[in-house]
Amino acid sequence: MYLGSVKFFKHFIVGIVLLLIIGLSFAAVYLAVMNKNYQKQISELHSETVLAQSTEKPDRSQESEALEYQELYPEMYADLSEKTTVSPHTIYLTFDDGPSDRTAEILDILKEKNVKATFFVIGKEGPKEKELMRRIVDEGHTIAIHTYSHKYEDIYESVESYLADFNKIYHLIYETTGVKPDMFRFPGGSLNIYNARLQMELSSELTRRGFTYYDWNSSSGDADIKTTKDSVYANTTKSAANKDRVIILMHDSVKKKDTVAALPDIIEYFKAKGYDFDKLTNDVKPVAFNYKEE
């Protein structure tokens, strides 16, 4: 009897296997066709998007709104120098994030060594800090802007937010010292991950207002949490090597004791190399990250 026999079950199993093979083949062909159609749709959608972007007319109303910040703070302008100078074999010591107790110690060292420097200050409005701002000016150093809050996320949120912060420190310096600052340093430097999308607008707007910004081409490395007196000295002298004109980044916030400790030896090292020391003024050719110094 065929039904229920061994031969029957063999034929039955073979039939099932054949059906599975045929079914999988059809499924593979179907998925291939669907995938091809899907890729075609994606390609067409991409082409339509590119075409729309290339032919879209600019929204002039948005462009006008983007320039409204030019009307803000009409008194916040400086006199941009008509020409720049380059002093060979010169060291410019610059200190960010003060004033603090370290600022007083640094000023004492600078006075003893007969060296002038530049201080990019932030918004500290205590009587002690204001007195240090006045001392910076009275002792012949340059005082400049490093923003009021120094909070990267806030100041780099928009051009408007940066200008608002800038305006606060501008007036604090002016009202405290009688000096209208005309120079500044971007927190993190002119190019960093926080201001990348705003850098061109910020630089253009502040330059339009007459302000000059300065980056650096040598660093003490004193922002590192593992800083020591020896590392500050080594980083400064090494990063300045083979440079004729050097703008050195240092900090005078309250924790920078190692910077203070290393400073006298750093000054003596560069004096022995025949360098002159000077403060930044807005006619000094800037060092900036977005162009190569000649």
UniProtKB/TrEMBL annotation:
Q: Which SUPFAM superfamilies match?
A: Glycoside hydrolase/deacetylase
UniProt xrefs under PROSITE patterns:
NODB (PS51677)
Any Gene Ontology biological process? carbohydrate metabolic process
Q: What is this protein identified as?
A: Polysaccharide deacetylase
Keywords, comma-separated and alphabetical: Membrane, Transmembrane, Transmembrane helix
* Organism of this sequence: Sinanaerobacter chloroacetimidivorans
Q: Which residues form the NodB homology domain?
A: 89-278
Coiled coil segments of this chain: none
Q: Name one GO molecular function term.
A: hydrolase activity, acting on carbon-nitrogen (but not peptide) bonds
**Which InterPro entries does UniProt cross-reference here?**
Glyco_hydro/deAcase_b/a-brl, NODB_dom, Polysacc_deacetylase_ArnD
Q: Which residues cross the membrane?
A: 12-33
Q: Which Pfam families match?
A: Polysacc_deac_1
